[in-house]
Design goal:
- The structure is a single chain.
- The protein has 115 residues and is mainly α.
- The protein contains four helices and no strands.
- It has helices spanning 12-46, 52-56, 58-75, 79-114.
- Helix 1 (12-46) packs across helix 4 and helix 3 runs antiparallel to helix 4.
- The N and C termini lie far apart (51 Å).
- The model has no long low-confidence stretch (mean pLDDT 88).
Length: 115
């Protein structure tokens, strides 16, 4: 994606259209990230890493936060805004992973009852 930066004289509708385009790209990237999170969840379920501690993975969360803060500063973005955004996204994905695990467990229980 080629980045276009505001020149400072764009009309508000053009600015909003540019933001809408960025939002669309962010959603596409979040969907891709979700697929990778789901893959990590499946791998944790297959291994012995499916506990609450590994789903929450505070050390991994901090590693990601440190990395995105550095990247934000290098890109000219507010490290605080990026950190807050990532913390919210990570929390949502942790809940998504937990719910996926609960659904998977319910399916396995139902299947074992039928057997």
């Amino acid at each position: 994606m080629t980045e276009k930066h505001p020149a400072g004289d764009e009309p508000l509708p053009d600015i909003r259209a540019a933001i809408d385009g960025i939002d669309a790209e962010m959603i596409r990237l979040i969907a891709t990230r979700q697929r990778w999170v789901a893959a990590a969840g499946r791998e944790k379920a297959r291994s012995a890493e499916g506990s609450a501690e590994t789903v929450d993975a505070p050390a991994r969360v901090q590693q990601v936060i440190d990395r995105v803060r550095e990247r934000a500063a290098a890109e000219g973005a507010s490290p605080d805004v990026v950190e807050a955004t990532y913390r919210a996204m990570i929390a949502a994905f942790i809940e998504y992973e937990r719910e996926s695990a609960r659904q998977s467990l319910r399916r396995r229980v139902r299947a074992s009852r039928r057997s």
